[in-house]
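User: Structure please.
Assistant: Input sequence and predicted structure:
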Amino acid sequence: MAALCLMAAAFAFPCFAPAALAQGGTSEFTLTPASFDPDAVAPGGVSSSLIQVGSVNGFSGTVNLTCQVTSQAVATDPPVCTVSPSSVTAPGSVSATITTLSDTSTEPYNITITGTGPTLPITVLAVTPQFTLSVTSSVAPTSVPAGSGAQGVVTVNPVYGYATPTPGGITLACASISPLVTIAPVCSFTYPQNAPNLQVTGTPASATLTISTFGPITTGAHSRNVMGFWFSLPLIGLVGLGAAASGKLLRGAWGMLAVVVLCGVFILTPGCANNTTSTTTPNGITPANTYTFTIVGVDSNGVASSNASTTTTGPTVSLTVTVPPKTP
């Protein structure tokens, strides 16, 4: 919008306001008036001025112009102002004409010429409170052997003043996993204070994400040292026979030999032991691969996280699973 001020009175010189600027987004136009001709009129006279409509920032729209006459006191038959043409494409020009009557009061008048550019439509939509999800702490460790797990943190961000229903809350889940395998990793969420779901009261709230994998399970350890003991039995038998068949002096020597043999038994037996560990895979083994999980959230009213729609997906996390170590 732009405005031009002209004060005209009988036998008075007109005065002009500086050129005004109209803004319409990044496009603008200006109104620049020329001096009225004649510059003073008597009642019944006519005066006109050429108004230049300038273009700024490449504006080339249509400008509609209107003219208004006002006075400080109540006037008789005040002047009439017309603009011709009433609209122009910038840049361009129009003519403003002031017409007075024979009984027009001789007093100052304010004449305002206004230019209006194209309308800029805007639609105000009703917004629905909603929430989005973000991974605020990546899964760690990023790589685990089958049978181990990792953890991360997922945050619910309320939008437009969202708060969870009462009673109720948001339940988080891994909606999809890629690639699909028979014995896939499993994800679960732990909420603050071990609640059954996540409560949001207008500020972000977080939950712990745990990814578990399947691998070998240790069932027990066994030590086999019977063979070392059996190796010592012949020696112990010989010592016993010698002690029984000899005299008193020799029985003492055989007794010393028995002590030496028994000490050797206790020393050698552990070396003959066979330690083994038993494992089982009741749930199978998660194949070695890099798995990607897509996370979504749904509250008790069925409202889903808004960054999971038909065109976008929720945030994702990844975990690399390697082959489990061999058991001894």
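The first helix runs from residue 226 to 245.
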